[in-house]
Amino acid sequence: MPSPTAKPIRILIADDHPLLREGVQIVIEGQTDMEVVGQAATGIEAVALYRDLHPDLLLIDLQMPQLDGVGAIREIRAEFPEARIIVLTTYSGDARALQAMRAGAAGYLLKSSLRRELLDAIRSVHNGGKHLNAEVASQIAQHIGDRGLSPRECEVLQLAAAGNSNKQIAAKLALSEDTIKGHMKSIFSKLDAGLSP
């Protein structure tokens, strides 16, 4: 649990559905270590608010008016390479996930799994980790097979696809959580390089 003296994680929510933004804000505001600092309804607004607010983390939908999520992620990451971004979407397809990851997203959550995964994903990505929804990880694993991944990386990806957190994967493989984070970083890097857009 976070220490009471730690600064809360400052979060910007970007989604064109007001009800989803409000619902996510309610979930986040129930946490002592997080706060919502702004909401955007379009991709262009998300980029402008990111510039103004410098949040610790951005939650963004892929399907948005004026500028889609991938375009907004690219613009933000071009200007702020250290930006930590999690995609919230209804799209589970591996191609969309890979586009978002290539653009610079560190997490990919399906809206259908938000209640379960959202808070863990925010904390993980804020701490420099990656978070990939299990259903999406499974599709990616099937899509690329084991091309370019080491046997250990395949094992880690399969455990992630089964819904295990980095901590759970570390326990199952008798490795440190930092080692698992290293494997995940390598997997993401190989996924980025190994597949065409």
From TrEMBL:
Residues modified to 4-aspartylphosphate: D61
Gene3D superfamilies with a match to the protein in the record: 3.40.50.2300
GO BP terms: phosphorelay signal transduction system; regulation of DNA-templated transcription
SMART domains to which the protein is assigned, alphabetical: HTH_LUXR, REC
Domain HTH luxR-type: 142-197
Keyword tags: DNA-binding, Phosphoprotein
GO molecular function: DNA binding
Domain Response regulatory: 10-126
PANTHER family per the UniProt record, alphabetical: TWO-COMPONENT RESPONSE REGULATOR (PTHR43214)
Stated name of the protein: LuxR family two component transcriptional regulator
Organism name: Stakelama pacifica
